[in-house]
Design a protein that fits this description.
single chain; 42% helix; 358 residues; alpha/beta
Length: 358
């Protein structure tokens, strides 16, 4: 797992290579009919499982905020057992590392009978069933991912979804300058991830405070809420500590009852338009005696104090880049906590790398 965490700068660079050139996205990389399909797309529906579902949930924010296209997201095992309505001109997107996830494949097959405009697969395995059965395809080029807890597959999925956002935005009002700005943000990602990985030693020391805990809460807002979910999933998968991810604004609607000195609360705090709201939520945690660990932008104004540990993230991380960059320390935290607890990091109990049965 640690090897694959540190492979992420190269994996993201490989995923973007020859697909974004000279400040432009080569939309044809999705398939020969991609430009026509993206032009005709008026709605997007994304279906996935597990970590891939978290990637889809991040994408929903950017597809709606940047491309101005309505987007819905479903867990595949839920989608296939309800009767989803399909708005006209809807693009159906599936995300899977292996391309053999049983529920995601079943959802794709159902979608192909349901009147969608087209299907797009985001996958890491070229010869997989998901790739073969979809009209448009974008491979993530993460390389083999052996660890059960997904790391580089997740961040390369986010990179591909960033390209989906650009492709849709081009056909829904974004001019060449806007496209160039978005592409530049994507190209900067490998270097930003490289800098974030330098926090490894700091996070290793931080992990010592988690090793004897039984519960943890992860908080984020906006597109960082799914990153909180992903951070909690990583911790529970490999360390067996019960962890939950929540949108920080939901604290008063239940989870605040759990907060005490024995339950660490981890927050991701990029410098964006939701920062002040997040700070208010963090004050609620401290008022109840909760121990805060905050991964914060240096310009956030969040300072360490009694019960508050602040780990400074790289500077100048934009909102579009923040989900990828703020994922990295949560992966490292889960890894180091699991090592201290003596669990099997690469093959956690009861889990399989590819879920090929329902």
């Amino acid at each position: 797992m640690l090897k694959e965490i540190h492979e992420q700068p190269r994996a993201i660079a490989d995923t973007l290579s020859e697909r974004v050139v000279g400040g432009r996205l080569l939309a044809a990389a999705f398939g020969p009919d991609a430009n026509d399909i993206f032009r005709r797309t008026h709605n997007v529906h994304i279906v996935a499982c597990g970590t891939s579902f978290h990637a889809a949930s991040v994408a929903r924010y950017f597809i709606e905020q940047i491309a101005k296209v309505p987007c819905s997201v479903d867990i595949a095992s839920e989608y296939r057992y309800r009767s989803p309505l399909v708005p006209p001109h809807s693009l159906f997107v599936t995300i899977s590392q292996s391309g053999e996830t049983a529920d995601t494949l079943a959802a794709l097959r159902l979608a192909k009978q349901s009147g969608y405009l087209a299907t797009l697969a985001i996958c890491n395995v070229p010869e997989s069933s998901l790739v073969r059965e979809s009209e448009l395809v974008m491979l993530t080029r993460a390389g083999p991912e052996i660890g059960v807890a997904s790391t580089k597959a997740f961040t390369t999925q986010l990179a591909v979804l960033g390209m989906v956002v650009v492709a849709l935005a081009k056909h829904h009002g974004a001019d060449a300058e806007r496209e160039r700005g978005l592409v530049t943000r994507l190209i900067e990602l490998p270097g930003m991830v490289e800098r974030t990985l330098e926090l490894d030693a700091v996070i290793r020391r931080l992990a010592e405070r988690f090793a004897d805990k039984h519960h943890a809460l992860f908080l984020g807002r906006g597109a960082l809420y799914p990153i909180a979910l992903e951070g909690a999933l990583k911790l529970k998968e490999i360390s067996y500590i019960h962890a939950e991810g929540y949108p920080a604004g939901e604290l008063k609607h239940g989870p605040l009852a759990l907060v005490d000195a024995d339950m660490p609360v981890v927050a991701v705090a990029p410098n964006n338009d939701l920062l002040e709201k997040l700070k208010s939520n963090l004050m609620e945690v401290r008022a109840r005696g909760g121990e805060l660990i905050v991964f914060a932008d240096p310009e956030s104004g969040i300072k360490p104090s009694d019960g508050v540990t602040v780990i400074e993230m790289p500077r100048s991380v934009t909102y579009v880049q923040s989900p990828v960059v703020y994922t990295i320390p949560l992966q490292l935290l889960a890894y180091h906590v699991a090592i201290l607890r003596g669990t099997d990091v690469d093959q956690p109990r009861n889990l399989a790398k590819s879920v090929t049965v329902e």
